[in-house]
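Request: Have a read of the protein record below and say how the chain folds.
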Amino acid sequence: MSITGIRSAPAAVALTLAMATPALAAEPIGEREFMHSCAICHGTDAKGSGQFAELMTVQVPDLTGIAKANDGVFPLLSVVHIVDGRSGVRGHGSPMPIWGDRFKAEIGDSKGDYGAEIEVRGRILSLVYYLESVQQ
């Protein structure tokens, strides 16, 4: 590779990222994940009034009050652990690997072990950031 090629490669990467960032930011990944995966029980407003809420044996929690129940602080890491299945939640039977496992199954082997794990964690984090954004 020539000196010119070495100098222009970082510029090309920077330009690509700069152009992609607004498009990525405009896509509400976390909200989409919530509406696709959680709203059926928690409701589109995250207040626990989804279509399946009345079928549950436990009351579906109002997810807009997570921070309020934690002295005004949104416990981001704890919520990540609940969503990815490391912490169990009543009403979900066994620990809730529903979303982590489901995301892994959707991705399959197409991105390799590390690529799949990175995408799964990104989707979970996007979902949790969305939950943080709907706190009241």
